[in-house]
Amino acid sequence: IFSGNEPFWLDEATSTVQNYAAKAGFGRDNTYSFSDDELKTDELIEAMTSPGLFADRVLVKLKIKDLKVKGKKLLEICSECINPSLLLIIQIPRLTLAELNKNKPLNFLADHGIISIFYDPDQRLITDFLRRRAASLGLNLNQGALAILYSAYEGNVEGMVQILQKMELCGIKGTVTEDLIRNHISADNHFSAFDYIEALIDPRVTVERRLQIMEVLLENGVTAMDLVTRTGTALSTLHEMRTILDTVGNLDGYFAGHRLLKGYTAKRPMYLNGARNTDLRELHHLIDLLTKADFMARSFRDEEAVMILKEIAAALSRKTLRLYPDD
Q: What residues contact 215, with CB distance under 8 A and at least 6 apart?
């Protein structure tokens, strides 16, 4: 039983068990997959109790997204059907130990097998995993490329792995540089969250460029609330850097501890210029504007939220431009 909130890790664990199980006689011809989205219980019962022709072992994979009424019933069915010929792999949402103890059918299954609860891994574990996965595809991510990939997908491991797989399908092998990874993240003029955040931080980026990135993201399904979050990331970064700059006089310590910039030194001047281009009073005003945009987005007034975000984007540029003179 695998319990967690990140489907990618649950699928990885399931695949690992399935690969070992194949060596023990659980073949693909007698492997069945079910999900509680669309599931006929009689088909699940038949799969668990009736090994296929010429087989004495069967593997059943079951994904349960809702552990309340339907999920609990499925667990009860599984409890009644376990047998020596069955390898049952169940994926469920992450539980606390208290929740686990309250679920009788789940406790019964756990007593007859193994339950693993997955917690969110830290950045170091994720980056180590990405290096290993890249190596298995014949790719060698340098430090800068790894940092860009991680930042662009904000910890979304499945998205990062898909980028690596796409590069492998394109015939790319060997060292992956910063420029190469950015080309694949932002291919076909599709900008990433990382592009948007950096465009707000870099004072050399024109207002027109920032608005272009914003419009493309919106056209590609990014919501106003997502843009509010990304803008908040940029403003909080600028505020932190400006505060340190005013207090210490340099950003050496900040860069040394930054998950991206400690290994991607070429980006440091751009971040430093971004901090120098603003002052705390201005940033406090922009953060107030962002609070209004957040309220608008949460009130489903997306157009008004985006207008405020455009005002923030303009204010962060060296070029003074008021988009809405009547505001």
A: none
